[in-house]
Amino acid sequence: MRVLIVGGGGREHALAWRLAQSPSVKAIVASPGNPGIAALGQCVAEPATISGYCDLAHAYSIDLTVVGPEAPLVAGIANEFRRRDLKIIGPTAAAARLEGSKRFAKDFFRRTHIPTARSGESLSEFGLPVVIKADGLAAGKGVVVANTASEAEASLARLGPNVVIEEFLDGEEVSFIGLCTGTSVVPFPPTQDHKRVFDGDQGPNTGGMGAYLDPGILSSAQAGDIMERIMLPAVRQMAKEGTPFTGFLYAGLMMTPDGPKLLEFNVRLGDPEAQTLMHSFRGDLGEVLRDAAGESLPTLNTAPPSVSVCVVAAAEGYPATPHTGDLITGIPDAEATGAVVFQAGTEQAGGQLLTSGGRVLGVTTGGDTLQIAIDRAYAAMAKIHFRGMHYRRDIGRKGLNRAREARRW
Ligand code: AMP
Ligand code: GLY
Fold it and tell me: 294 and 180: one domain?
């Protein structure tokens, strides 16, 4: 099978890396791809239009297309592929509204009775802190947690009238991702992202500074609860409404004392969660994705997943104003330790690897325990260098604390 990957970040590099090891996959093409993916397949420039991706799939005799980012999905890439009889993993534009419109999503949660934060129209309905979200795709920058009334008023003025106001939920966030076939869901192991730029969850939100996969993030009762109360009802309701959901469905959850509550759905794999999911994935990913694209339920390897950690190295100034064009060294040395380095904001220029975006790369490792995987990730990261590079030193720490607390009981 020949696979086209749409996108060019760390998530797409991880997909390409795992697909390259699938016996069913003969060739990988990525658009636009990145220098890391170029070592595993062919990278071709991004077409200007959605139908341009279909032309590309025809030109490269592609059997299956996998879409990384949300924007082409929200723009209807899956509709166009299906119309032209091309196999693709990803929801239609109508189903992608679960991520594309916060207002659609909130109304959907309500009519599906999915546990979520209480939302309303005016600040007076809520105490403090209060959460204000801009409608539409905002790459994580459209959400404000306001601690004071004046901050809330100012955010409301800045974000305009098209906002959702909701109660603040306290707890730990978990990323729960499933592969959907229109009527059912196959869950992946739970992962946890680190959204804030600095250690201890300080500083502004980012796309994600690191993630880890550890089955211990959720008990099996909690995972079952999430499937029964959130994932399966969502997929069943989407089918009932005539907009069946196929592809990766990512529930961003807050684990509250009252159980899991859904903050948001994303209609794709998380980044950097995907790096850990792909790292610990066992089996033939090509086959699994082909089954899901054909709407038959894929079978995942049910052996307990191994732990995996991804630490992201970001460019100076990220997330506000990332500096680009800095020389990256040490990736081969990092990989010689056994780590896998997934590239994201990198470019090849004049025979050198340079930074070209905010999140530059993610060092990904596995291990028998979370502590081992974390230590390996940081040992590998120490080999890598670019000017202004910064990364969090506490990726996975919540997982270590959780394990310690569990031991005490
Ligand atoms: P979203 O784009 O909806 O995922 O929001 C981005 C981030 O804002 C989430 O990952 C949470 O850290 C935070 N957030 C969103 N909604 C809430 C909420 N109701 N209560 C607490 N934090 C929230
Ligand atoms: N890591 C968060 C996201 O992909 O949205």
Answer: yes
Query: 163 in ligand 1 pocket by Cβ < 6 Å?
Result: no
CA distance 98 to 250: 10
- Least Cα distance to 82 among 70, 67, 68, 97 occurs for 67
Question: Do residue 136 and residue 214 come from a single domain?
Answer: no
Alpha-helical runs (H) found in 124-253: 149-159, 220-226, 232-240
In this predicted structure, the answer to whether residue 138 has a pLDDT above a threshold of 90 is: no
CA–CA separation, 147 vs 165, rounded Å?
13
Planar angle of CA 80, 86, 88, nearest 5 degrees: 80
Q: How far apart are CA 227 and CA 54, in angstroms?
A: 34
CB 293 within 8 Å of CB 246: yes
Q: Which of 167, 185, 200 marks a domain boundary?
A: 167
Percent of the chain with pLDDT over 90: 86
pLDDT score, position 160: 80
Domain that holds residue 51: 2-90
* Ligand 1 neighbourhood includes 106 CB (under 6 angstroms): no
User: For residue 302, is pLDDT > 80?
Assistant: no
**What is the 144 CA–ligand 1 centroid distance (Å)?**
8
Summary mean pLDDT of the chain: 94
CB atoms within 10 A of CB 364: 32
Pocket mutation for ligand 1, best pick of 119, 125, 126, 145 (most atoms within 8 Å of C-beta): 145
If asked whether residues 185 and 222 sit together in one domain, one would say yes
Q: What pLDDT score does 141 carry? A: 58
Burial class for 397, CB neighbours closer than 10 Å (0-12, 13-18, 19+): middle
99 CB within 6 A, ligand 2: no
Which range is least confidently modeled, 40-44, 136-140, 154-158, 192-196?
136-140
